[in-house]
Design brief:
The complex is a heterodimer of chains A (173) and B (64).
Chain A (H helix, E strand, L loop, with lengths): L2 H34 L6 H35 L8 H35 L5 H35 L13
Helix pairs in contact in A: 1-2, 1-4, 2-3, 3-4
Chain B lengths: L1 H26 L3 H33 L1
The chains are: A mainly alpha (173), B mainly alpha (64).
Chain lengths: 173, 64
């Protein structure tokens, strides 16, 4: 087994793992958001969940940022031209759309954390703060669904363009 | 995290956008590559003033 082969497999594994972890953590954040935006739920419980959500969001941000350089390194290792391969150009486009979605979504988690902490400190405008959390989270939902769809489509594109490392034949088509 | 976001948006947007534009110039027109160039350069341009504001705020705080 040569070093290049082992490196290629390692990068494939890391790339797949980061995307799987990204999707899984996104599902967890989605599940957490229901309680956070529920104005009738206990404040301490909502605060606890928003802290968890914020921590997960930070991990997701690192994974999201790491996915691009790892993917570029993988393209280099597999001799895949970065800007003249049709399926890879489509993946770049979808990743770019995810960057746009991330720009939209990042302030949502921050608003929830800020507002819930203000409520804990005894803010008078609780109804307004709750409405702001719910409004921002509901506005973010289409972007979350867009990210999931794009990640799944990107994964399928990658799977159907996987080539056997030595024979250079497509594995799944 | 806000630093990470804007450095990444401007950095990756710039690199991917310029590389896509260069690919268009050398290899000819391709709709997906053109969309990539517009999208990535767009997010880089959107993020640049925000990153500059972060840098200027940090510099001002450092000077104090």
């Amino acid at each position: 087994m040569d070093v290049h082969y082992v490196t290629e497999i390692a990068f494939r594994g890391i790339h797949s793992f980061t995307v799987a972890a990204w999707l899984l953590l996104d599902f967890i954040v989605f599940w957490l958001h229901f309680k956070i935006k529920d104005a009738r739920a206990d404040l301490s419980e909502r605060l606890e969940r928003v802290h968890i959500m914020h921590a997960i969001d930070t991990v997701v941000a690192y994974i999201f940022v790491g996915t691009l350089p790892i993917g570029i390194a993988l393209a280099w290792l597999t001799d895949t031209p970065l800007f003249s391969t049709d399926w890879l150009n489509w993946k770049h486009l979808m990743y770019g759309l995810i960057v746009v979605a991330a720009i939209v979504l990042v302030p949502v988690s921050g608003t929830a954390l800020r507002n819930l902490e203000a409520m804990k400190k005894g803010a008078a405008n609780i109804d307004e703060l709750n409405q702001q959390i719910e409004r921002d989270m509901n506005r973010g939902l289409p972007w979350v669904f867009l990210i999931w769809t794009l990640i799944i489509v990107m994964t399928l594109i990658s799977v159907f363009n996987l080539k056997c490392p030595h024979c250079h034949q497509f594995i799944f088509r | 995290m806000v630093w990470l976001l804007w450095i990444f948006v401007v950095g990756s947007g710039g690199i991917m956008g310029v590389s896509s534009a260069m690919s268009l110039a050398t290899r000819g027109f391709d709709i997906v590559v053109a969309l990539n160039a517009v999208l990535y350069l767009g997010v880089a341009l959107y993020g640049a003033p925000r990153l500059l504001r972060l840098i200027s705020n940090a510099t001002r705080r450092g000077a104090r």
